Amino acid sequence: MNMLHTKSGRSDDELLRLIQQGDDRAFRETFDRYANVCFSAAMSLLKSRDLCVDLVVEVFRSVRANAAEIKDLKAYIFDRAKQLTLAGLREIARKYFEENELQGQDL
């Protein structure tokens, strides 16, 4: 059970319960609590502001879409951010190798 509180005094568990009930303020509070952390962690690996903004949007889109199934809000957010960061790294690597393959053919 996650008991992290912010200035509103709400724990992650309470925020999750409220999000599951459709509370937009609780969703916004959760976004405010975790978006920068997700962005910074992803940015340290992806080095692309645009990719990281997209990643954060997708993490929170997923929170809203899957709220009913989420058991641990913080764990879900960080796991989803990790999955998307790894997918971003794979995409960067794929593009890099494709570009280098094409350059190698020009020789």
From TrEMBL:
One of its GO terms (biological process) is DNA-templated transcription initiation. One of its GO terms (molecular function) is DNA-binding transcription factor activity. It comes from the Bacteria. Gene3D superfamilies: 1.10.1740.10. This is RNA polymerase sigma-70 region 2 domain-containing protein. It comes from Chryseosolibacter histidini.
